[in-house]
Amino acid sequence: MAEDVHSLPQDEFRERVQSFEFWFGAVQGYLEGREYGHRPDAPAAEIALGERERLVSTLCNYCVGETAALEGAGALIRLAPNQATKVFLATQTVDEGRHLEVLIHRLRELGVRDPEAEIPRWANPSLLRFKDRLLSLVEAGEWLPALFAQNVVLEAMEFAGFQRHARQADATTREVLIGIVKDERRHIGFGENELGRELRRNPKLRERLQPLRAELDVLVLDALSHTLRQLGAPASERHELGRDYRDAVERLGFT
Predict the structure, then answer these.
(1) What separation, in Å, do the N-terminal and C-terminal C-alpha atoms of the chain show?
(2) Which end of the chain has fewer beta carbons closer than 10 Å to its terminal beta carbon, N or C?
(3) Whole-structure pTM over 0.85, yes or no?
(4) CA 69 to the chain's CA centroid
(5) Residue-wise pLDDT tens digits, 164-207
(6) In 3-state terms, the chain is what percent helix, strand and coil (to 5)?
(7) Domains identified in the chain and CATH numbers
């Protein structure tokens, strides 16, 4: 019978779910039988030329976000306050590297010969500014602000955006996105847990992070709106996606 980790004492629960052992069991459940994030025998969908270009643009921007998360998670390992946190960030770094790999592979499946050259062409300026801001926090040694920017704000943006895109995507892209979303849920949980404990110990931390949240919100909401415009979503859906993102961040009490 599988162990119920939620029944463990809090400290033991945190240590267990941040381990490589837990990570391996989690990802194996939804990656087994997949190649580059989707079933190898999945039928290729016919995608019209205009729709294909919009999808390529969107996936290129997803690659920018995943590159930010990959570089951020890897660099945050040296700032992490304990070994369990370092181990979790190592698993997250692997996740982000896989995300980037499967998205680049999907671009190649769509006929993009040189994805690394194509990504800068489509990159949204707000998303690039977000990436620069996140990495500047890491380089400055700002552990908690960087963790907030990456594992709450960035992960909430990707979770909301990928989940909504998956509802209307072709079957292959949907499988890729659903696999990524399952990882993002784990990354958000880690960020909320770490920051939630710090906020209980130091309520003034919320005041310190509020200006950063306001700064990043502008970039995130612009990037989300840009993505949905590329996908041809109506304005009402863009508002709903913005609300989904805000709800994820506001669980920590940032209103």
Answers:
(1) 42
(2) N
(3) yes
(4) 7
(5) 899 889 999 999 999 999 999 999 999 998 999 999 999 899 99
(6) 80, 0, 20
(7) 9-250 (1.10.620.20)
